[in-house]
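User: Some background: our group keeps a shared notebook of sequences we're curious about, and every so often someone picks one and asks for a predicted structure to add to the entry. Today it's my turn. The entry only has the sequence so far, pasted here. Could you supply the structure so I can complete it?
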Amino acid sequence: MALFCFLLVHCFIVFVRSQLHSETHHEGSTSTASVLCSAECNQQLQNRLETIEAAVRTIVSAVSSQTDDLFAPIKEIFRQDSSVRSILSFNSTSSTIASTKNSTFKINSVPLAQAPNRCGQEECEKFQGCLETFETTTTIHRNGNTLNAKSINAESKFSLTSRSNTLILDWEDNSDCASQLTALNLKIFSDGEIDVPDSETASVKIPRNCLKLKTDGTKLFSLDLLANQRCTPKWKPLDACRKYAFEIQSEYSNNRSSGASFMSKAFTTKQGISPKNSIDGLWQCSAQKFFCRGIVDPLDPYAYAFGSTKTSGCLDNDKICNRETDCESGIDELNCAKGPKFWFIGNKPEPCTNGFQCGRQCISNELECDGKYDCLNGSDEHYDCEYSKSCSQLTGNFGRFSSTPVTPPNENIHKNHWMNLVRKSVVLITVQTNHTIWLAFYKFRTTENRFLKVYDGSYSTSPLLLSHSGTTKPHPVRSSSNNLYVEFPSYYDQSYGVEVFYTSMNTTDPPFVSGCGGYIYSDGEVTSPDNLSSISDVTDCIWFVEARDSEGIILLKRNVDLIDEKDKSTSEFPENHPIMTQVYDGWSSSGQVLYDERISPRPPRVIYSISHKIMIQFRIPEIKNSKTFNWRITTITPTVQYLVGEKGTLKSPNYPATYPDSSDFRWNIVTAPHTKIQLLFALLETQEEFDYLYVYDGPTINSQLLLEKSGSEPLPFAVNSSTNEVLVRLTSDEAKAFPGFLAVYSTL
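Assistant: Of course. Here's the predicted structure to add to the notebook entry:
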């Protein structure tokens, strides 16, 4: 049979070659007969060639679809024969992407603006290169779930919905070479990486005869491949919550090179769904009980024999699978493991040796994560079920993400089950290339068995950076690339969950070492480094701190026990203690210096920022320390008051009582143009080294600093400006407070 097919196809190929050769040979003839019948003959020849090509295509497709080893030599000859390749396309596929059952991949396309180098028919004949310009919309169908994906490439838009296992593709060829299209090549790269060794790649080559050309003249090709059709390419559906790169390239006839490829990237986002509740009163009882509608009373012989019921309510879990019908519906004796023939009432049920154990019940493994509750304790539809997972992508260079409330079932929920109503959330953070990502944990409270996991890459197969649960905030982490993949729990109980902020940094920064630097958002602690001399290429640890909002400022305060009592009398830190070398306003060493060890070897007790960001730099100690030291970070929102006039009085809030803690009060004084201002302070009393009074020669804290004082001044003093605007500022920490100040101002 194989030999017969090969001979038949070979005869067709020889005939096609002879016809093409005959047509070429007669092109140079100038005989009258050839000229007179050229149009009719050419049309007949064209019709004949199309018929032959269709027949050959059908036969070769049938042969190439055979899986028997007997056909392998013939298929190899097909692949090597240039004449066959010029009119046929084989569905050669290699797919290693992990599959998910009942999934669909769909691409819809609409044309973009006409490309400037789009080629016409003449260029198409010469095939100097046809550039296809098209816009794709990708749809993946899986298990009734709705997924959404946004493309990183601005030329593509992706959306994902739900249906059965099918591949639908609409694609418009704008190259004017559409009539010579023979195949469409689609490559799918997992994790959005191209030309990376060992990366998972799927390749699908779709023959021209599988593409239907619309009749409206738009050159829009469509493809609808079902699993049982002859043209179905072999492929595996895309995973939800994963980043992909797509490459689409057309092929044209007569051994001409392929058209230009189109590249795009997307992340398959997904909105998780809740399981169907098929068990009455699943969440109404405590975790030690189950709900029974129609309790059978064993003390009533009639009720026990005929199932007559009096009430409904919660029964102890030891009533489950005890070989007594305690519920009228018999739900308490469903899904019980098979035990010995002779079994005493009250014994524990048999363990689940071949299935999923859920309390005292045992269900088949197929019922776990099937989207419907089968266990009386609801544990078969749990946190790790794929259908319940929600995921999204963040592409800004800074932002936040947090746990989202879990939609509760439409019934009363006992408080013991609040922690069972939890779903997995996934976020992929992708920032611009040549940048890395810092994570700062603003809110963190999870149950001990639900972990936040951070992967250093674009998928859960990437290296694990962090796995953390409980109530303590994790230390900041940083990626090694421009992608971070984060999994975290979302709860029905809103007192649990996480809130995380991120920002991106240029990769010229030193490599991240745990315990050396970090990112703090709003509030937290900056920790000095321990000895890291074994890491030769790291000499400094840098912390990046950001206030809660762009109008806020940052209070940096070192712990009172930073230095031992025996060292407090000295002007420097003890030997080998980690040194804070510089503090900059902003995230660059070109920002205003708030502290420099070269000017003051001993850091101040508090530092107040000017803007909403500061950068703190530590030098790594040469000798390992017995402990590290902490500086507390607090965000303060300034309060501003405007004073206009030739003279007036200003005083600290609550004066002569004490001013508020953790505050930044500002007074903008404006007088007539071309005047100057004199401030006369009658009294100043603040907490020394912690609370400060500043006067600026201008309207902002970026103006020239005229005065910086802390502590007490028993005698009045004056400050004169050089302009008609002055800013007075009073800052305080969270500790002791004092009366503050009293002042009058007038023009000069």
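Suggested note for the entry: The longest strand covers residues 435-445. The helical segments are 2-26, 32-36, 38-64, 72-80, 82-87, 121-126, 301-306.
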